[in-house]
Write a structure and sequence with these properties.
Strand order of the largest sheet: 3-2-1-4-5-9-6
CATH superfamily of the largest domain: Vaccinia Virus protein VP39
Bound molecules: S-adenosylmethionine
Order of helices and strands: HHEHEHEEHEHEEHHEEH
């Protein structure tokens, strides 16, 4: 279960505000999401993608179950004077817009495989999902140079393209899709923070010698470390008009 701690919020904010990742993803989402649409971002997290999309939409409702994440996004919207974005703290599966929106967006949130009928109860036209290509990619942060491939148990249940594609094919659901590889590097203040970061996200303890080797080329002139990283994923768009009726009327599982 994903839980936003203050530490995680700080790391994510640091990465998000120093790279163009969300701007890049928003550009790809907008290929499918017409300007002026009313949309909802389900499981919006800190809302960096939502804040990139909002200026192009008539209104955007951002739903997340985490009080920490929604409080963060509300504060950002006030600070940035974003007026057409509303924030709801709650479970997206229970949330229903007063009237269906034109599109729902999910980014690194499960829904396409098991809850497509439910998503189309909320959306008139489009379900757009941003997802990882695979759950077995171990190349993040250049760790493969130093360590053998590692299983990522925390991602076992995360919806990724490798798992979604065969389901869409089997159900005869047409889709449009764009792949991306965008920078999402991490700035960390010192070795303790590097250790804490890898412990948190990878359950990984660096042996001292390995940490030294790893950090040497990543040391920054002004202090601290920059861990280069490329996030690989895709944007998948599914149009109601092309989804077989039996799927729309089917059960969520
Ligand atoms: C991996 S994060 C992705 C956040 C954001 N969409 C992004 O791309 O950065 C998953 C998010 O889904 C939220 N979440 C998980 N289950 C949820 C649910 N049932 N309803 C609403 N939000 C949920 C979590 O709190 C978390 O913010």
């Amino acid at each position: 279960m994903f839980h936003w701690t203050q530490q995680k919020i700080d790391w994510y904010q640091q990465a998000a505000e120093h790279c163009g990742y969300h701007h890049g993803v928003a550009g790809l989402v907008r290929r499918y999401l017409p300007d002026g649409s009313a949309a909802a971002d389900l499981g919006c997290g800190l809302g960096y993608l939502s804040m990139e999309l909002a200026p192009h939409l008539s209104r955007l409702t951002c739903v997340d179950i985490s009080p920490e994440a929604t409080a963060f996004l509300s504060a950002q919207c006030r600070r940035r004077r974003i007026g057409n974005l509303s924030v709801v703290c709650g479970d997206w599966t229970q949330w229903q817009p007063d009237e269906p929106v034109d599109a729902v967006v999910l980014s690194f949130v499960n829904g396409v495989i098991h809850q497509l009928p439910l998503l189309f109860q909320k959306s008139r036209d489009l379900v757009i999902s941003v997802m990882a290509l695979s759950n077995s990619d171990n190349s993040s942060y250049g760790l493969d140079d130093l360590l053998p491939p590692r299983p990522r148990p925390q991602y076992r249940l995360r919806e990724c393209w490798e798992d979604v594609a065969p389901v869409l094919e089997a159900r005869g659901i047409p889709y449009e899709r764009t792949e991306f590889a965008l920078p999402f590097g991490q700035w960390l203040a010192d070795r303790d923070e590097v250790r804490a970061f890898f412990r948190h996200y990878y359950s990984l303890e660096f042996p001292e010698q390995r940490l030294e080797e790893y950090l040497a080329p990543r040391r920054q002139p002004g202090g601290g470390y920059y861990l280069d990283n490329t996030k690989r994923g895709c944007v998948v768009a599914i149009r109601r008009s092309r989804v077989p009726r039996e799927v729309l009327e089917g059960e969520n599982d």
